[in-house]
């Protein structure tokens, strides 16, 4: 029997297990607890067997979420000892943040030093990026403050002294001074993300001002560091299922299932907020720029599907660039705007981070003023530049930033359990936003071709073969 045929079995067992658990908890049916437990573990066994065949990190995170929750429910005393697994994962994540943020920001700024040659187009693109991501930020803040998805989570069992935010009164001058680093090594060691950002921006500007001959070696070195840190992130993420399982086992063992209800409430909030962003911001922008909406939607359907399924913007980049050319955006504009947008135009990620950051504060019982929320989310928006292409990299940024703002980490692990589902949506919106940005800048430049007819791919292939043959001979 092929493992692929286990899918219906897994679904049936899942339905039975959930139904039995719900009916028993509400005393609709009287069922022996051992029978209910056996049914749930039977579902998990089938889930685990199917996961062996899938070999997907996202799928294994989902499996570990269920296993961790079940361990926390059935063996609470043992489950609280599994917090060490989530702590290990958190420590590994904290080692990533400073070099990743530094490298991606420097490459994103100094790597586009040719903006002076690009001229008006570069300025227009950057203005558009910042305006749209700001809208995304405010929609995210409005949504989470409206639904208050993190409010009401029981903190029974949480060590208040170590986990809860300690109120610190600071003057405006203290806050401003805290942004600027006095010693970059100290900033890295203390996890002061915003100070690392400021240092990276100034360093990148200085690097961009250096002559090309001197700039190139340093830029190549930092680009290599950026690539290594992305791979480092991927390696650390292999530990994510274990960290998720341990975190959820600890959470459920200490606080029961109540936090998971809030997590799914947050998931619903995110999807509604992203839909609102698409309808209230991106659609009017497309209409104002006179982008043919029907053709645009048809063109981006495939790259957006790739982004949604793989949770990686980079996986969708080649097809997204081809799609924009196919509707009449010149190649030179696509080649500049889209890669730049992957660093500076993270609509879905920005909206998600604003939701998640405030959710952490709400879960911890901290009432942040609107000004405090803006400072925290603005920091997240800066630190997230350049990491949209890596699955779950936003969680790395979120974990490090809430720590630097003296917020507890345990609510982040509640989010981690459903992050795969959130990552799909925010990554898809990132791709949609960058595709639209490319078309809008082309229209702004007066170079969008309204009645563009894409060349026949068969003819293009034949032409490419002919060119290749000429070079070969």
TrEMBL record:
Keyword Transport: yes
Any Gene Ontology CC annotation: plasma membrane
Keyword S-adenosyl-L-methionine in record: no
Pfam assignment, any one: SDF
MF (Gene Ontology): symporter activity
Keywords carried by this UniProt record: Cell membrane, Membrane, Symport, Transmembrane, Transmembrane helix, Transport
Parts of the chain that traverse the membrane: 34-52, 59-76, 96-113, 125-144, 193-211, 232-252, 264-288, 351-375, 395-418
Compartments, record wording: Cell membrane
Annotated membrane topology: Multi-pass membrane protein
A GO BP entry: dicarboxylic acid transport
Gene3D superfamilies membership: Sodium:dicarboxylate symporter
Name under which the protein is recorded: Cation:dicarboxylase symporter family transporter
Biological source species: Hymenobacter telluris
